[in-house]
């Protein structure tokens, strides 16, 4: 039987209450939302928080998915299933639906949350690369107020983020810009497993030229889950198969996969190139309105 | 800490450690052994119960997180001495062999039919994709769910007629 180490449990009744509790309980306290990344690690004693602050009662405040002016806003407590079912998210960024279809399994998606996935900062977690591709911003709140951090700057290492111990992620904001398309491509061994590798892309076209591009990489040791060198190589280039393949090669060169039971380094590097190319191809087709 | 869970419509209150998992609250504290405890790693899905109306893997939820909430287990499917159509379907179509995955499969199937009364085979397979049948009896599980869908459609027609 897997049993977490002992901890104290508190349930937050408001955002202010959650932040106050985190402040009182100190740096060994953790927020629990869906718990589907954290609780398995606690059961294996890889994580041993002294206290948990349960934020599941803050759903009304923190779980909305909506458009606010030119921003898609996704509440940190939105469940994976909510994001997959969100018409407004899919209308602006199909990458969210692509990714959510292959995150864990349908039952896990009922309870696991968007913010929880990002805050757990598992190197094989999909949404970090997705938000890196669309250049989303995380809204964090602490005792001294609210600050915004690009998701590309959220992670400082495996399972580590820039969040202070008494900061809570409130929502993710993604700028909606015209002329864009996005996609996510993942290879996994079976349903519900972590990816062997995955790539996300968002492109904005000016005619047949790539005006702007974001590329995210999952599980291949890419710093901040992003591929800035590949983006630089593609920006301003013609939106062609050759350009996408060239960008894929650059992405593969600059990532740093590790060999494990999911595959050797050269296979993962091959996937980084191939999946980046496929994601760019599909994102561009969607930007042109050629593919659903 | 004291935890009260509305379990199949009946409040169950127990003094538990915060680290107690929901699956163990259901099985050991409330004594409802219909929910099975399988892989313990949120892979196999035999521990699926409904939490506030949605299927979740109860080995990955703390009992404390379910405090004050509603949980429905496989024991809560039967209504007034009548098996739920998904339970009948599993009987009719040989949807279980060893029966280990069955409670989770039934809870997921019931949730699927509530959301989508006429699911296609791929939709059924997708819905149960986070659950493992160690007998590999998926064909019959899919047939069982279809049987239940058809039975409910027929009954609905009879009511309308």
From TrEMBL, chain A:
Keyword line? FAD, Flavoprotein, Oxidoreductase
Under which name does UniProt file this protein? Carbon monoxide dehydrogenase medium subunit
- Top-level lineage group: Bacteria
Q: Which SMART domains match?
A: CO_deh_flav_C
- Tell me which PANTHER family the record gives: XANTHINE DEHYDROGENASE SUBUNIT C-RELATED
**InterPro entries listed in its UniProt record:** CO_DH_flav_C, CO_DH_flav_C_dom_sf, Diverse_Substr_Oxidored, FAD-bd_PCMH, FAD-bd_PCMH-like_sf, FAD-bd_PCMH_sub1, FAD-bd_PCMH_sub2, Mopterin_DH_FAD-bd
List, for all copies, the residue spans of the domain called FAD-binding PCMH-type.
2-179
TrEMBL record, chain B:
Renumbered to this chain, the signal peptide range is none
| Gene3D superfamilies attached to this UniProt entry | 3.10.20.30, [2Fe-2S]-binding domain
Q: Which residues form the 2Fe-2S ferredoxin-type domain?
A: 1-77
Q: Which InterPro entries match?
A: 2Fe-2S-bd, 2Fe-2S-bd_dom_sf, 2Fe-2S_ferredoxin-like_sf, 2Fe-2S_ferredoxin-type, Beta-grasp_dom_sf, Diverse_Oxidoreductases
* PROSITE patterns registered for this protein in UniProt: 2FE2S_FER_2
Task: Identify the domain of life.
Answer: Bacteria
* Iron listed as a keyword: yes
Assigned keywords, A-Z? 2Fe-2S, Iron, Iron-sulfur, Metal-binding, Oxidoreductase
Protein name per UniProt: (2Fe-2S)-binding protein
Please report the organism this UniProt entry assigns to the protein: Asanoa iriomotensis
Source taxonomy: Bacteria, Bacillati, Actinomycetota, Actinomycetes, Micromonosporales
